[in-house]
Amino acid sequence: MLIFGVIFFYVVVCIILYFQTSHIVRYEVQEGSLATDTVYRGVALRDEIVVNAETAGYVNYYAREGERVAKNNLVYIVDETGHLNEEMENLSFGENTLSDKELSDFRHEIVNFVHSFDASQYGSTYDFKYSMKNTVLKLANTNMLQSIDDLSGSGQRNIVNYFRAPDTGIVAYWTDGYESLTAQDVTEDIFDSEYEKKLMMGNSLVAAGDAVYKLSTSENWSVVIPIEATRGAQLQEEGFVKVRFLKNQYESWGETKLLTNGDGNTYLQLTFTNSMVSFVTDRFLDVELIVEDETGLKIPVSSIVEKEFFLIPEDFVIPGGNNGGESVIRQTVLEDGTLSSEVLETEVYYFDNESKEYFVDSSILNAGDTLYKLDSQETFTVSKRATLTGVYNINKGYADFKQITILDENDEYAIVEPNMKYGLSVYDYIVLNAESVKDDQFINQKNAQNGG
């Protein structure tokens, strides 16, 4: 009973000590990159002119949606009396066949729809339906147009009004109220509110002043996306970014401009000089930013810590100490009061190439210490401090600070520059939680747990 009692007491003490002791978890440094979400939904902005009907009547179109028309080209006609269709039905057009170009137009629209169809965006099916219907009516109207002169010659004049394009541009048969929207006017409400697109159909009745079509007059257009401020600033600094449009997988380079609009949110304007015609039927587009992922050493954010150091000019540090490190010559005062000097080996954690200063451990030197330059009586007083970002390396059995340069990071991991002189290397062991250790703390490698 006595023996079992002692064993039980020992086990209880061990359990209590285990829970009262902070456990050090080590993490093996590996190469890697960060997975970043680069898909955004943006609003497309173009130079758009909405053309309104000058007279009331039945409208019939002669330009296909997405087709470029020149200035003064015929776009549509308006039958004021409504008798045109009746008269046309009485005429015999014979058997009509589609030309190679007309067949090509159909194939082009069908192939584009098939490749871009997304079941989650089923509303695009209706856009395709109306587009195809307008194409059919346009082809039929072209054949009918050849017989209108015959009707006019039979005494039925002025039943049809011809309307031509006021400028060159790409024709579109829809409006949504965003035709005059600018990049600075984009707010979160535009993406959150219910979107309504008004489609225009051929052979339909319109009133004077109603919108009948619109022209996109410039090949320069842009897409505005909401974005994180930090990421947006990085992309603006680069100037251009490669963009993939998810609708058809088309890729193009967009010029970047960071905006902070009236709602306080950050937006990125991507400006393009081509491919506008491919998206003339779309107001909202899903785009993917093709950016080069930063690769390097992947470490947990919880491992990162900051530490303060003394800054020592390059001339006052002697490279190559007894153990292969660096040394300094420090002024000392002997017992009799005379000044002397001693060579003090110290560990260097970083060298700043711009200021030509070494970051030296503040536990070795004290503020106010006087250092000598090698083979000179010139002195330097230790006082200037600065901090470095780093992690605790435990390869040697104790918490050894190593400086890092962060290339990219998210909430969980950071990518740091590899193979730095005073930094980390792949397969190094670091402390997973920097708050669980103190500087130069002894680490029992057998008891250290693996993490990550």
Structure description:
Helix content is 19%, strand content 37%. It is α+β, with helices and mostly antiparallel strands and 452 residues long. Strand 26 and strand 27 form a beta hairpin. The radius of gyration is 37 Å and the shape is elongated.
Pick out its properties.
alpha+beta, elongated, 452 residues, 6 helices, single chain
Write the layout of secondary structure elements.
Layout: H1 2-20, E1 25-28, E2 30-33, E3 39-45, E4 48-52, E5 57-61, E6 68-69, E7 74-79, H2 84-90, H3 100-116, H4 124-153, E8 160-164, E9 169-172, E10 174-175, H5 188-192, E11 198-199, E12 204-206, E13 211-216, E14 221-226, H6 229-238, E15 240-245, E16 250-260, E17 266-272, E18 284-290, E19 295-300, E20 305-313, E21 318-319, E22 326-333, E23 339-346, E24 348-352, E25 357-361, E26 370-372, E27 379-381, E28 385-393, E29 400-403, E30 406-409, E31 413-416, E32 429-431, E33 449-451
Helix pairs in contact: 3-4
Brief digest:
By secondary structure, the chain is α+β, with helices and mostly antiparallel strands.
Look at the helices and sheets and give the structural class.
alpha+beta
User: What portion of residues belong to β-strands?
Assistant: 35-45%
Helix share of residues? 10-25%
What Rg, in angstroms, do the CA atoms define? 37 Å
Number of contiguous helices: 6
Please give the largest β-sheet.
Answer: 6 strands, antiparallel, barrel
Q: What is the overall pLDDT average? A: 83
Spatial strand order of the main sheet: 3-14-17-16-15-18
Low-confidence stretches: none
For the record, give the distance between the C-alpha atoms at the N and C termini, rounded to a whole number.
44 Å
Shape: elongated
Number of strands: 33
